[in-house]
Design goal:
Elements lengths: L4 H15 L9 H8 L3 H13 L3 E4 L5 E4 L8 H8 L24 H17 L3 H5 L4 H6 L13
Antiparallel strand pairs: 1-2
Length: 156
């Protein structure tokens, strides 16, 4: 399964906003666009959709920007991916209306791929946005210095 660019950028916007939680100024689209080298107009459409879905609070004008509408710990990744991906039919036989595969009636591949997709989504369902932006655990931090992560703000 490969995520669409739309979902990828959606997750980047949400991660950036989560990483900036507690900052005085809201995150701007221009800031995220520059950090990820993404078209500002493309991000504007994504931010509008996230606001319509109740994930981002947006304010227009000078001093405006965006913030998460609820804590990152309450934003489930599986839910976000399901909202942004339009097609989970990873092979032809998953789509009943257009399936022309001659193996469908006795093929085991469909069942295997279906279980793999369920496992994929189950992993995402077990993760929140907060899990993606949490600092490393003390054990991890002891062995590795906190590196600069392009596309995320520097830790305070």
């Amino acid at each position: 399964m490969r995520l669409t660019q739309w979902t990828d950028y959606t997750l980047r916007v949400l991660m950036y906003c989560a990483a900036c939680h507690g900052r005085t100024q809201p995150v701007t689209i221009s800031e995220v666009a520059q950090a990820h080298n993404i078209s500002r107009s493309h991000l504007t459409k994504i931010v509008q959709q996230l606001a319509a879905q109740g994930l981002l609070d947006t304010t227009r004008g000078r001093g405006g920007g965006m913030r998460l509408m609820r804590p990152a710990s309450q934003i489930n990744l599986g839910d976000v991916v399901r909202r942004t991906e339009s097609d989970f039919n990873i092979v032809e036989c998953f789509h009943l209306e257009s399936n022309t595969c001659r193996l469908s009636s006795h093929c085991r591949l469909k069942g295997v791929l279906s279980r793999a997709m369920q496992a994929y989504l189950a992993v995402l369902d077990g993760m929140t946005l907060q899990d993606l932006v949490n600092p490393a655990t003390p054990a991890e931090s002891a062995s590795v210095a906190q590196p600069f992560v392009p596309g995320l703000p520097l830790p305070a």
